[in-house]
Design brief:
This protein has about 220 residues and is mostly helical. It contains eight helices and no strands. Helix 3 crosses helix 4 and helix 4 crosses helix 6. The longest helix is centred in the N-terminal third of the chain and has 39 residues.
Amino acid sequence: MNKKQRNEKIKQAKDFYAKYKFAKQQAREFRYKIVKLCDEVCHIHYGGRDKAHLADIKAGKIYTLKQFALDVGVNPMTLQKWSEEYRNIVKPLEEEGLITTEKMTKDTAIIIRNMARPIHNRIRRDTPKEKVIERYREVCNSSKEDRLLERYVLAANSVFNFVNEHRLDKLNQEQVGYLRNVITKLHDKLKPENLDLNAKPVAKNTKRRYDNAGF
């Protein structure tokens, strides 16, 4: 392949990547457009439903979030999560002019994700708006590294829950051994005497560094 042909392929790839990034932004924005429509047409009910409610649903008098999801083609659990995230976090922030769902940037989406999945003090529908705003400012003022760390802590907790709920002798032993080695090395690294307070920041790297970590 000559240089002209290679440059043409590069140009095509750049065009595809630009469309890919734009599509991801559109996906973030369309999520909330769907939720807003859901809020307009659905009867949002908190807590259990009594016999009268169930009878009205069966008779078609009440249009539920689940039915809306099925009619639209969205997984009901997915729409439920989107809806909770919007009502509990996004809507209060948008009302205060702190964010806009009309232009949902990648950074804003990451901030919302961190707010929606905290290590503790999860935001719920009865959380006061001032607490939501306070949490938003906390996340905004934290470094990107700390936001990423919080996500990894949650991931580590998910691993613990998985291991705690399964019989390890029934799982792939090679993978179990790999996990054991990773956790042992991580445990040693996190010991106070091994924390290098004077270490220079590691250069930003999007590669999966653990692939060559020697585990």
